[in-house]
Design brief:
Layout (H helix, E strand, L loop, with lengths): L1 H12 L5 E3 L1 H15 L6 E9 L2 E9 H4 L13 H14 L2 E8 L8 H5 L9 E5 L13 E7 L2 E4 L4 H4 E2 L5
Parallel strand pairs: 1-3, 1-8, 4-5
Antiparallel strand pairs: 2-3, 2-4, 5-6, 6-7
Length: about 170
Amino acid sequence: MSFSIKATIRAWLLPEHRLSCRPRLWAAIVDELERRGHHRHETGVFLLGVDRAGRREVTDSVFYDDLDSNAYSSGVCILHGDAFAKLWTLCRERQLSVVADVHTHPGAAYQSASDKANPMIATSGHIAIIVPDFARSGASSGELGVFEYRGQHQWTDRSGQKDRFFYRGFWS
């Protein structure tokens, strides 16, 4: 019963959000990105969860280097093909899907030419989030870059509406 009340209130208060994550889970993910990057290189994570009528809820995560031990060896996030086979196997086992991906940048949360040309999941509607400053000290949510893939290497920048598009509050 409490879930339906919570879902109803969330839908009423935040009718436009497409992605949500519980605050503690989001904080743990960002802290782990910072730890794995050692303030020296990019790190990344796939956010796993469920999609309910176009609203994605993050319930779990898997870090790039857990899928590919060489994911950060160049200083930027690069996954090789077998990492995706492992990812899809994990998704099947956990009965979840990839709802977004997150990676860090050394400075601002802009989308690089490489990010634009090489989406981690090249499916229209996929959400990519960039955390600035290698996630140092949790990087405030106001600094996040939030981008939605439209296909054909085209993206929509949702950063200006990130708090409505990507919700990390009490009602998650």
